[in-house]
Specification:
Blueprint lengths: L2 E4 L31 H35 L6 H6 L4 H14 L3 H9 L12 H4 L3 H12 L8 H28 L2 H13 L1 H4 L9 H19 L6 H21 L3 H17 L5 H21 L4 H4 L2 H15 L8 H30 L5 H10 L8 H7 L10 H8 L2 H25 L3 H11 L5 H19 L4 H16 L2 H10 L5 H32 L2 E4 L1 H13 L5 E3 L2 H11 L2 E2 L8 H10 L8 H10 L4 E5 H4 L10 H8 L22 H4 L5 H4 L2 E6 L3 E6 L4
Helix pairs in contact: 1-7, 1-8, 3-4, 3-6, 3-27, 7-8, 7-10, 7-23, 8-23, 8-25, 10-11, 10-22, 11-13, 12-13, 12-15, 12-22, 13-15, 15-16, 17-18, 20-23, 22-23, 24-25, 26-27
Length: 715
């Protein structure tokens, strides 16, 4: 097991701070008045806010880099230990960066990725098509052409780039909150909440190469650009530049993460809901639909026409929305009941078209790469139990379970969740009222009069932020791994609400306490008090965290990797668990039978077959399976064979037993049609060196954690 132990001794263009509301600060001729000295104040505010944004972003980058160094003593450990610290799929992704660095030339490195025969034995696959590793390719080329080889090791160039992207991430969150509220104080509060809630907002310091750590900064930039795009009074040139920024950010986000299509589908749903309720400009929403599809199609081309992208729901959905809108041209005309009926029909039409188009595309492409995701979702939300091995593998992982309740207690300790709930409630009520008014078909004069009377307004950018946070909140509640998409935006949304003139104006008018001066005082004093509270409460803890020194400690895995490099040929093929084999590829360069990048049907079936080493199968069966994949060595892990981390029914051996129709080990119920196996568990029985096993397998290495067996090569 990989552990850490105590270190041994001796070893944006922006609005003014006081952003006026659109209704009360627009003259009859449409021009926005500027108070004396307003231009100078704007420039000063933007300059100070920009400096603070960059400073906070850089400090966050240094902070997570220091935590990583202190946790592993990364600068002091050996290269093999550094590579082992990139656990599971992180090691697989980093191995392609290392492969490109070590290639004789850039051309040979690219050829090795396009015609790869070491990631999956007896198969040649295109890594650039199957995986989102263009960032590793770009970074390796950059490292080769820049004159930095003498000063900076490849691994540091890689991790510093990821930590640098954290600065981009925090700056994007800061700018988004600033744009929404009109004051950079809101951005500072969002950044502080992001840092003090680090456990729930990021995991970059211990999963550096993970795809989400590349993608989420670009997603945050995209949201900031969309927030600016949805503002009123943009000049045509500003709008075009903003659309270009949205496209670039969308493209980079899509290029760096295989789950991009699901995140953008949720984003498209947010746009669809708001467009249907007439809360966003239709023309801008249309451009955003087109940008999403264009970005994905460009990524599809770069990934050698990856069929999983073409068969994604997001492309089918966006096309369906555009078609349905063309068919229903009078969607936003008529009275309340008429519009409601049209809206229901519109939603049904879009849903049916999406399913038909998606099914048609998948039928033509014979696409089955993402079927495991839909099996998982079907089982997760109670649409029937499943014995499918792949679906159960996800269901039993904590990361794909419901969001733990202790998450809310941690978020509440920084006041984030309390403020978020307060702002969410207010803006949800406002959104419901405005949506009802929009659907009622009132003319604009009456609408403005009512809005002024009831003081209920919601700008398009705030409306988008509201629906965005609600939808991604639902995603996070259902799947813990996706919480990082929600919690980071939670920081933005809560800080915006706390610094928003509109929010405090609404609250004070409801309490009959409204004055302009009082609104301004509360708008600035409450965030400042909150910032002071956070600083005094969490600064000592952050300092203690930064002073805590540990070191990487995993001698069993280090011993295994060193043995493989020293005692096996370079062409040897290794079988074992997905997580371990990713490390084997990175540390030794040996060929694998399977790996953790699970978005391929053939690989999923192959992995299930390889995992029979932990099932109740005969030695002859296991030997035949392993040899069919060209296996020379198989690695057995005691932590899997005798697993106690999961409860009965979720241990890997239990999932295999159920999938094979066998009764599970231990006390407890079994489904009535499960039967006892004719054979004992392979990973346990092989250690007894019985003749039926030794004729196929010879133990060549063992330590407290791993057992390596060499397969006999029978004629």
């Amino acid at each position: 097991m990989t552990t850490v132990r105590q270190r041994r001794v001796g070893k944006v263009e922006e609005a003014a701070e006081d952003q006026p509301s659109e209704e009360t600060n627009v003259k009859p001729d449409g021009k926005i008045p500027h108070p004396p000295g307003g231009k100078v104040w704007n420039i000063l505010s933007i300059t100070v806010g920009g400096i603070v944004a960059i400073s906070v972003g850089l400090l966050t980058s240094v902070y997570v880099a220091t935590l990583h160094e202190n946790d592993l003593w990364f600068s002091n450990i050996k290269e093999v230990e550094r590579e082992i610290s990139f656990r599971t799929e992180c090691g697989l992704y980093y191995s392609y960066y290392k492969q490109m660095i070590q290639a004789a030339s850039i051309q040979q490195g690219l050829h090795g990725l396009v015609y790869d025969n070491k990631t999956e034995s007896v198969r040649t696959i295109n890594i650039l098509e199957r995986m989102n590793v263009y960032q590793e390719v770009f970074l390796s080329i950059l490292y080769r052409i820049l004159p930095i080889q003498q000063y900076l090791e490849p691994v540091y160039f890689y991790i510093y780039t990821l930590f640098g992207l954290q600065a981009v991430y925090v700056i994007a969150l800061y700018v988004t909150s600033w744009l929404l509220s009109g004051t950079w104080l809101s951005g500072l509060l969002a950044a502080c909440w992001y840092i003090t809630n680090r456990v729930d907002t990021t995991r970059v310091e211990f999963t550096i190469p993970l795809r989400e750590n590349w993608a989420l900064p670009f997603f945050a930039v995209q949201i900031a650009a969309i927030t600016y795009l949805l503002r009123s009074h943009l000049q045509p040139a500003q709008e075009r530049l903003t659309l270009m920024a949205v496209f670039i950010a969308t493209f980079l986000f899509s290029l760096t993460w295989q789950f991009n299509q699901f995140m953008m589908l949720i984003q498209a749903l947010a746009l669809f809901i708001l467009d249907c309720l007439d809360m966003l400009p239709t023309a801008k929403v249309t451009w955003l639909y087109i940008i999403q599809v264009s970005g994905l199609l460009l990524v599809c081309v770069l990934q050698f026409f990856n069929s999983m992208i073409l068969g994604s729901l997001i492309i089918s959905f966006n096309i369906s929305v555009l078609i349905a809108r063309t068919i229903q041209k009078n969607l936003k005309k008529g009275g309340f009941l008429s519009r409601l009926g049209k809206l229901i029909l519109h939603v049904l039409l879009v849903l049916c078209l999406t399913l038909l188009i998606n099914k048609f595309i998948k039928k033509i492409l014979n696409l089955e790469s993402d079927e495991h995701i839909f099996k998982f979702l079907k089982a997760k939300f109670g649409f029937g139990a499943t014995r499918d091995f792949d679906a159960n593998l996800y269901l039993c992982e904590e990361a794909f379970g419901l969001l733990p309740l202790n998450t809310f207690s941690r978020l509440s300790s920084t006041l984030l969740f309390y403020v978020y709930g307060f702002v969410l409630f207010l803006l949800t009520v406002a959104a419901v009222i405005i949506a009802f008014r929009n659907l009622s078909g009132s003319n604009q004069v009456q609408l403005k009069a009512k809005m002024e009377e009831h003081t209920v307004t919601l700008k398009p950018d705030a409306a988008y932020s509201l629906v965005h946070t609600v939808l991604f909140g639902c995603l996070a509640l259902s799947t813990m791994r996706m919480k990082y998409l929600w919690t980071s935006h939670m920081c933005v949304f809560a800080s915006f609400g706390l610094c928003s003139t509109e929010v405090w104006k609404l609250v004070l008018k409801c309490l009959h306490l409204y004055t302009s001066q009082r609104t301004q005082v509360i708008k600035y004093s409450v965030p400042i008090i909150t910032l002071l509270y956070i600083s005094f409460k969490f600064w000592p803890g952050i300092m203690d965290e930064l002073s805590e020194l540990r070191e990487f400690y995993d001698p069993d895995t280090v011993e295994l990797m060193n043995w493989i490099k020293s005692n096996t040929p370079n062409t040897a093929v290794f079988a074992g668990s997905m997580q371990l084999l990713a490390g084997v590829k990175l540390c030794t360069g040996r060929t694998l039978t399977n790996h953790p990048h699970y978005e391929d049907k053939n690989l999923r079936e192959r992995t299930k077959q390889i995992y029979q080493i932990y099932a109740k199968r005969s030695p002859g069966d296991v030997y035949g399976i392993l040899r069919s994949f060209g296996t020379d060595y198989v690695i057995l892990e005691d932590s899997i064979c005798y697993e106690r981390r999961h409860s009965r029914g979720c241990r890997l051996r239990d999932l295999l037993d159920v999938a094979n129709g066998h009764i599970m080990d231990g006390l407890g119920e079994n489904e009535p049609d499960l039967k006892p196996s004719l054979y004992p568990r392979f990973c346990e029985e092989i250690k007894k060196n019985l003749p039926s096993y030794t004729m196929h397998f010879t133990r060549v290495f063992q330590n407290k954690t791993f057992h390596v067996y060499k397969l006999a090569k029978h004629k």
